[in-house]
């Protein structure tokens, strides 16, 4: 990785890195969470039940491909693969796939096209994220990895919300700045073009930064072969990386909890507190604002106290406020406690990235961030499955949602066995 010698040049590159998070989150916010997901299930699929099932299957299939291919991709990058070319390619594929969602009209005939494009976009976006995360320890000074990870994650939340606000006020609302025909849902489909442009434009500064050392550069095919060998060696010597293995296992648990929280938070708010769709959307925005605030606020503390300490604090906050959210009866208390819960979401995610960036051996960084992606996808089905079954068996949303708190508790207990990030990744 070519890092400028002067402070101003390094800062410019770090800002470009952080703004990739800003660019990257438009997909998660507009496509995966708020706009396209709802459009597909309600207007494209034959009915919402079928749409929800097909959507879940497509996202799960893409996640499985990321989980299986991520470590290989990372290892190939570690072995001198064309890191910049790969990041440009995956970002470009994601931009094109998102833009092509414009072609998905509100008709069940477009379901196959929608699912293929979503699968491609998810695979490309997540793969780009692996390479992006692995750049952090090469760019940021060791004593500032925590703050840059937190700032990047916070910018991601803010960027996603800014893109969402532009979509709502620019295209979707009845009094939108750019009135478009409603009969073919052009006003909604235009937001997919916005998300593609947002990612493409704001990713450019990082994509223009040189990332490959000439002495290490290899053709992609050879890098993949060498990467597979590196991954095999890592698995053979897994005991040397016991700390990282325990950390990834802990992250797998609490990320399952976070993913389930985002998947079912709106369902819980609507079912238990009878919130309207607009209120659920506002609550989702509030949750993201709180998460951005928490990620930025705790960024300095990460460098001061260490990412393990921040993870323990964040998980404790998630457990305490998550439990209180499930106990309250009044809507106002739910809003207040929900916003406090959100403050600890961002630090949990940012500190996890910071921790791995600190402990990963330099020669294995991208590979380990591939395993980082694997830890976030391998058991992603478990949380939603358990919430659904427990809710059905208990006949209560509150009891079903308590599964999320259990995931946080298990993640915290396992994280207690992990030392602070002061090693080179070996145990």
Give an account of the 3D structure.
The chain is mostly helical. It folds into 2 domains: 1-235, MFS general substrate transporter like domains (Growth Hormone, Chain: A), CATH 1.20.1250.20; 237-427, Growth Hormone, Chain: A. Helix content is 79%, strand content 0%. It has 17 helices and no strands. Helix 3 packs antiparallel against helix 15 (365-377), helix 11 packs parallel to helix 13 (331-343) and helix 12 packs antiparallel against helix 17. It is globular and about 55 Å long. The two termini are 27 Å apart. Residues 423-427 have low confidence and may be disordered.
Output the structural class.
Answer: mainly alpha
Please give the domain count: 2
What is the CATH architecture descriptor of the largest domain?
A: Up-down Bundle
- CATH class (first level) name of the largest domain: Mainly Alpha
Number of helices: 17
Q: Which residue ranges are poorly predicted, with pLDDT under 50 across at least 5 consecutive positions?
A: 423-427
In terms of DSSP E residues, the strand content is under 5%
CA-atom Rg in angstroms: 21 Å
Oligomer: single chain
Number of strands: 0
State the helicity in percent bands.
over 70%
CATH homologous superfamily descriptor of the largest domain: MFS general substrate transporter like domains
Mean pLDDT: 85
């Amino acid at each position: 990785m070519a890092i400028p010698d002067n402070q101003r040049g390094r800062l410019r590159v770090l800002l470009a890195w952080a703004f990739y998070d800003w660019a990257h989150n438009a997909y998660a916010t507009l496509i995966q969470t708020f706009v396209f997901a709802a459009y597909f299930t309600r207007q494209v699929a034959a009915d919402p039940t079928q749409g929800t099932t097909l959507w879940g299957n497509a996202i799960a299939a893409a996640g499985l491909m990321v989980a299986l291919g991520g470590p290989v991709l990372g290892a190939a990058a570690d072995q001198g693969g064309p890191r910049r070319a790969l990041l440009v390619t995956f970002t470009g594929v994601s931009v094109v796939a998102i833009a092509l969602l414009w072609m998905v009209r509100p008709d069940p005939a477009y379901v196959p096209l929608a699912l293929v494009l979503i699968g491609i976009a998810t695979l490309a976006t997540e793969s780009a994220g692996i390479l992006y995360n692995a750049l952090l320890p090469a760019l940021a000074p060791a004593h500032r990895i925590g703050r840059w990870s937190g700032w990047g994650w916070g910018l991601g939340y803010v960027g996603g919300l800014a893109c969402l606000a532009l979509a709502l006020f620019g295209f979707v609302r009845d009094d939108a700045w750019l009135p478009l025909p409603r009969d073919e849902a052009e006003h909604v489909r235009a937001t997919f073009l916005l998300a593609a442009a947002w990612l493409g434009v704001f990713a450019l500064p990082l994509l223009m930064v040189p990332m490959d050392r000439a002495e290490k550069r290899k053709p992609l095919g050879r890098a993949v072969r060498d990467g597979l060998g590196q991954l095999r060696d890592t698995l053979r010597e897994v005991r040397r990386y016991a700390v990282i293995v325990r950390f990834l296992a802990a992250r797998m648990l609490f990320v399952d909890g976070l993913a389930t929280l985002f998947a079912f938070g709106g369902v819980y708010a609507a079912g238990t507190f009878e919130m309207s769709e607009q209120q659920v959307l506002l609550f989702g925005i509030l949750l993201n604002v709180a998460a951005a605030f928490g990620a930025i606020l705790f960024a300095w503390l990460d460098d001061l106290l260490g990412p393990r300490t921040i993870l323990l604090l964040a998980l404790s906050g998630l457990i305490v406020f998550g439990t209180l959210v499930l106990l309250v009866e009044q809507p106002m208390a739910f809003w207040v406690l929900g916003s406090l819960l959100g403050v600890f979401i961002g630090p949990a995610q940012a500190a996890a990235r910071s921790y791995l960036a600190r402990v990963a051996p330099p020669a294995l960084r991208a590979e380990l961030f591939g395993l980082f992606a694997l830890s976030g996808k391998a058991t992603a089905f478990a949380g939603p499955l358990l919430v659904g079954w427990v809710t059905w068996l208990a006949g209560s949303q509150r009891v079903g949602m308590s599964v999320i708190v259990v995931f946080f508790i298990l993640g915290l207990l396992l994280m207690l066995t992990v030392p602070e990030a002061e090693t080179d990744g070996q145990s």
